[in-house]
C-alpha cells in the first residue's frame, strides 16, 4: 500500500445520492442492537461525517486493529499472498488473478481478524476453502476485465469485534466521481519496496469513466474497461500495490455502512502519476488504481451465493398472477444469512401489481440489516423495505420485476406474504397504490373528468429527467394548498419539493433535474372538483446547447390578468460531469430589485451571461414579471 507523500493537485468532492425508500414504514421502529451488521464496525461510535474522510486524504496510514473487520488474508502454506473481503460468514470476494493456480485449493486458507502478519492475535480465525468460483468471463490472457472470484469457505466464521462482513452494493448503486473511498491491505509501501507486517489503508477519489479511459488509453496496450473503476490522484503518490490484490475498495454510504465497491485488481506500477504519460517512455508510465466494479458483476455474485443461502425455493415465477410467502408460513421465522431472489414475469404489455398482506422484517432506519428489495426490469431499485408496517401496493411499469430478500447474522422476523398479478395500465393507476413508471404518457386524477373522491391518495414515480405539463386543472383552492393539492418532489423521501399546485389556473410546467420525479395528489374530506390531467415527456440529456424559449409566457400573462404578480419559473440544466455550464440569457426583462437567479452555487441579480462551476444546476427565477415581445 503506497503512502508516499504527494502534492495535492485537486480535491474532488461529491455526494452519493442513495435511493431513499418508498414507504413511511421504513422510518418507524428504529432497531438498536449491540451486535453490529454488515459494514458496521463493532466499536464504531462516532457518527459518519463526510468531512472526516477528507482530514485523512493527504496520506495513507497504518490502521488500528479492528478498523477493517471484513478484510481477510489469503494464505498459501501460512504465507500471505492476496487480500479478500468477507461478505458473509461463508463467502469471500477476491480477485480472479489471485487464484489462477489449479493446485492452490489444497494449500489455500483464509484468515479473518488478521492485523499483524507476524503474530497470531486474539480473535483470528482461519478456515480452508471448499471451492472457488471465478467469473466465467475472466480471461488470464487479458486479466483486466472481470477480475473477480468467490471463495466458498469450508465452515463459517464466527462474527466478533474483529470479524464482520462488508455490505455488498445494491443493484444500480454507484459511487460517483469524486467520492472518497478506502483501499486496504498488506501490500508494498512503495514500488519495489518492503512488505509491511500490519494492515494499511489509503483514501482515494473515484474517477469518472472519461478520465479513467483517457488515462488507460495512454498505456501501450488498449484496455477494455467494461467492469473496472479507477481511483487515485493524477500526480500519483497514493495507490494500492503488490500484495494488496483481491482486497477491498470500500465506500461509506451516507448513513455510515461500509460497502464493497471494488476489488483491488491492478495498476501500472504503484502510485505513479499519469498526468504526462504521453511524454514518458512506456515503461515509466503510470495509471490510476484499477478495481473491479462490484456493481458490474453483482448479479453474478448474487446468483452464485443465493444457491447456497435461500431456505425456500426461489427463482422464476412466470405466471400472470400468484402468491409468494416467505419463509412459507406467517408463524415461522426466517433464518439468518439468507439471500433469496425471485423474478416475476407477466405477459408482455402488462404491468405488475404487488400487494402485501403480511410484513415482518427486522426494522432499521435505512433497511441495511434485513430487507426486501424490489427491482424493475432494468435492475433499477424501486424500493427497499423493512419494518412491521405493510408497504403500500406497488404498481411496476414493466412486465417483470425482481425481488431480493437478505438477512444478516442476528435478529429476524416472520417474513412477508404478497400477491402479484398482471394489470393493464390506466391513467389513474397511481391512486390507492404507488405507481412506478418508466414510459412517457398521460396522468390524471381518479374519475377524471368527473369529480375526484374525498381522501384521495395518488402517487406516481418516474425515473428519468422529465417535464410535467398540465392540460387541465381543477383542484380545491386555498392559500397554502393544504386542502387538496398536486405536489411534485425530486426525491422519494418527499424532502425536495419543487412545485405544489391547487386552484383553477393551469400551473406552469415542471422540470425535474435529479433524474426522478415523484408526483403526489391528495384531497381532504370536504369539497371535490374535476381534478387534473397532465402529460409526462422525457427530456433527453445530451450536454448540447439548448434553447428553453420564453419563461412560461402564458402563465405570466394569466398572473397579470388576475393582478397576482408573483410568478416562479424553474428550469433544469445539466451536462456531462466533466463539463461546465455556460448559460446565456436573452431578452430577459424583469424588475431588477426583486428578481434574482437561484442555483446550487450562486444567487445573483441577472445581468447577462454567467458560468456555473458545476455540471448540474436548477435555475429558479421569481419576482415581478414585465411581459415582453
From TrEMBL:
One of its GO terms (cellular component) is transport vesicle. The keyword RNA-binding does not apply. SUPFAM superfamilies: Spermadhesin, CUB domain (SSF49854), Trypsin-like serine proteases (SSF50494). Its main location: cytoplasm. One of its GO terms (molecular function) is serine-type endopeptidase activity. SMART domains: CUB, Tryp_SPc. Transmembrane segments: none annotated. Residues 313-423, 431-539 form the CUB domain. Disulfide bonds join 431-458. InterPro entries: CUB_dom, Peptidase_S1_PA, Peptidase_S1_PA_chymotrypsin, Peptidase_S1A, Sperma_CUB_dom_sf, Trypsin_dom, TRYPSIN_HIS, TRYPSIN_SER. This is Ovochymase 2 (gene/pseudogene). The keyword Disulfide bond applies. Keywords: Cytoplasmic vesicle, Disulfide bond, Hydrolase, Protease, Serine protease. It is found in: Cytoplasmic vesicle, Secretory vesicle. GO terms for biological process: fertilization; proteolysis. The lineage of its organism: Eukaryota, Metazoa, Chordata, Craniata, Vertebrata. Residues 57-306 form the Peptidase S1 domain. PROSITE patterns: CUB (PS01180), TRYPSIN_DOM (PS50240), TRYPSIN_HIS (PS00134), TRYPSIN_SER (PS00135). Signal peptide: none annotated.
Amino acid at each position: 500500500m503506497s503512502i508516499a507523500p504527494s502534492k495535492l493537485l485537486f480535491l474532488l468532492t461529491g455526494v452519493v445520492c442513495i435511493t431513499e425508500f418508498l414507504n413511511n414504514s421504513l422510518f418507524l421502529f428504529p432497531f438498536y442492537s449491540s451486535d453490529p451488521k454488515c459494514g458496521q464496525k463493532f466499536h464504531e461510535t462516532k457518527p459518519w461525517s463526510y468531512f472526516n474522510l477528507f482530514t485523512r486524504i493527504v496520506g495513507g496510514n497504518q490502521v488500528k486493529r479492528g478498523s477493517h473487520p471484513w478484510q481477510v488474508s489469503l494464505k498459501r502454506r501460512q504465507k500471505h499472498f492476496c487480500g479478500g473481503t468477507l461478505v458473509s460468514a461463508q463467502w469471500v470476494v477476491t480477485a480472479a488473478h489471485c487464484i489462477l493456480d489449479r493446485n492452490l485449493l489444497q494449500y489455500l486458507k483464509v484468515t479473518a481478524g488478521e492485523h499483524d502478519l507476524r503474530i497470531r492475535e486474539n480473535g483470528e480465525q482461519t478456515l480452508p476453502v471448499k471451492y472457488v468460483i471465478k467469473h466465467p468471463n475472466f480471461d488470464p490472457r487479458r486479466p483486466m476485465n472481470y477480475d473477480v472470484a468467490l471463495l466458498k469457505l469450508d465452515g463459517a466464521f464466527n462474527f466478533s469485534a474483529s470479524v464482520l462482513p462488508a455490505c455488498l452494493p445494491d443493484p444500480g448503486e454507484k459511487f460517483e466521481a469524486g467520492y472518497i473511498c478506502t483501499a486496504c491491505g498488506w501490500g508494498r509501501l512503495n514500488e519495489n519496496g518492503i512488505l509491511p507486517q500490519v494492515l494499511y489503508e489509503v483514501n482515494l477519489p473515484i474517477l469518472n469513466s472519461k478520465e479513467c479511459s483517457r488515462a488507460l488509453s495512454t498505456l501501450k496496450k488498449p484496455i477494455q474497461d467494461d467492469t473496472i473503476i479507477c481511483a487515485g490522484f493524477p500526480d500519483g503518490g497514493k495507490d494500492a500495490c503488490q500484495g494488496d490484490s483481491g482486497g477491498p475498495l470500500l465506500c461509506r454510504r451516507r448513513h455510515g455502512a461500509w460497502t464493497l465497491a471494488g476489488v483491488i485488481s491492478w495498476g501500472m506500477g504503484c502510485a505513479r502519476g499519469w498526468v504526462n504519460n504521453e511524454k514518458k517512455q512506456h515503461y515509466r508510465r503510470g495509471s490510476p488504481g484499477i478495481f473491479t466494479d462490484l456493481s458490474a458483476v453483482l448479479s453474478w455474485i448474487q446468483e452464485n451465493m443465493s444457491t447456497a443461502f435461500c431456505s425456500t425455493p426461489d427463482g422464476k415465477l412466470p405466471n400472470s398472477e400468484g402468491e409468494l410467502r416467505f419463509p412459507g408460513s406467517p408463524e415461522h421465522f426466517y433464518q439468518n444469512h439468507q439471500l433469496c431472489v425471485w423474478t416475476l414475469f407477466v405477459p408482455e404489455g402488462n404491468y405488475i401489481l404487488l400487494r402485501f398482506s403480511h410484513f415482518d422484517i427486522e426494522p432499521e432506519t435505512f433497511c441495511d440489516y434485513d430487507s426486501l428489495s424490489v427491482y424493475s426490469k432494468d435492475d433499477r431499485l424501486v424500493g427497499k423495505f423493512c419494518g412491521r408496517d405493510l408497504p403500500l401496493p406497488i404498481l411496476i411499469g414493466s412486465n417483470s420485476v425482481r425481488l431480493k430478500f437478505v438477512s444478516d447474522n442476528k435478529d429476524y422476523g416472520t417474513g412477508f406474504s404478497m400477491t402479484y398479478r398482471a394489470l393493464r395500465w390506466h391513467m389513474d393507476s397511481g391512486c390507492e397504490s404507488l405507481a412506478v413508471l418508466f414510459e412517457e404518457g398521460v396522468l390524471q386524477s381518479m374519475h377524471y373528468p368527473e369529480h375526484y373522491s374525498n381522501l384521495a391518495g395518488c402517487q406516481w414515480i418516474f425515473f428519468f429527467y422529465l417535464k410535467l405539463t398540465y392540460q387541465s386543472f381543477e383542484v380545491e383552492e386555498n392559500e397554502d394548498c393544504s386542502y387538496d393539492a398536486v405536489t411534485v418532489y425530486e426525491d422519494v423521501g418527499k424532502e425536495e419539493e419543487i412545485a405544489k399546485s391547487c386552484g383553477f389556473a393551469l400551473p406552469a410546467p415542471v422540470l425535474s433535474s435529479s433524474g426522478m420525479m415523484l408526483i403526489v395528489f391528495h384531497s381532504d374530506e370536504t369539497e371535490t372538483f374535476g381534478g387534473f390531467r397532465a402529460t409526462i415527456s422525457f427530456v433527453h440529456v445530451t450536454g448540447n446547447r439548448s434553447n428553453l424559449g420564453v419563461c412560461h409566457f402564458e402563465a405570466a400573462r394569466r398572473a397579470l390578468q388576475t393582478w397576482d404578480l408573483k410568478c416562479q419559473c424553474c428550469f433544469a440544466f445539466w451536462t456531462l460531469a466533466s463539463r461546465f455550464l455556460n448559460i446565456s440569457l436573452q431578452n430577459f426583462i424583469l424588475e431588477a430589485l426583486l428578481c434574482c437567479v437561484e442555483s446550487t452555487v450562486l444567487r445573483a441579480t441577472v445581468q447577462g451571461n454567467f458560468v456555473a462551476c458545476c455540471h448540474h444546476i436548477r435555475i429558479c427565477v421569481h419576482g415581478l414579471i414585465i411581459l415582453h415581445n
